[in-house]
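hey can u run this one w/ adenosine monophosphate bound, need the structure tokens asap thx
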Amino acid sequence: MNIVLLGPPGSGKGTQAKRIEQIHGITQLATGDMLRAEIASGNALGRRVKGIMDAGELVPDDIIITLIRGRIGKPDCRNGFILDGFPRTVPQAEALDRMLAQRDLRLDHVIEFEVDEAVLIDRLTGRFTCQHCGASYHERDNRPKVDGICDVCSSCEFVCRPDDSPETVKARLGVYRRQTAPLLPYYRRTGILQRVDGMADIDAVTREIEEVLG
Ligand code: AMP
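ok here u go:
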């Protein structure tokens, strides 16, 4: 099963992708995480994309398409994959269609997370993740059970993303409206676009997604 999760930053794609990964045994491919790994390794690609990401802009299509092309052919994608944060532009979606056709694959579901922008700003500006296992939390409504200790791996080290500052969040939402939202009519035409209520609580969103996935 091959799935695309589509929605603005902070709409819960990453959280739900991890759950789908566990439930269905298919692999989450999060382009944002891949790019942050390149930055952390300090290589030339990481140096090239860091400023773009910190400003909340999109990395050039050719870089992202190359990353995904190298990934979907790997053995861990044999059962399928969940694309989280890709595609983000119409040319990326067209490139994905070509890549899948070459491998005799197709997209089974495109799931749109519908959310209110004011809520997104609030969500993104309070979020933090465990530096070791990547579990995500929120200052106001999703703190670790014991303050300062990760529920999943007991690490005490947490990080905030540099692009989660209020100004950059606003820029990222603008980028979503201008460059990514045109993917909604693109996928609506193919008949595989379905919508879930991204404002519901995390378990309710998972249940809605499970209904979509059948
Ligand atoms: P995310 O973790 O999905 O919010 O992505 C963080 C940042 O990585 C974005 O603001 C972009 O700068 C970059 N990025 C991630 N995925 C893509 C993509 N498909 N196309 C272009 N840039 C991307």
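Residues 118 and 174 are 13 Å apart (CA to CA). anyway lmk if its weird
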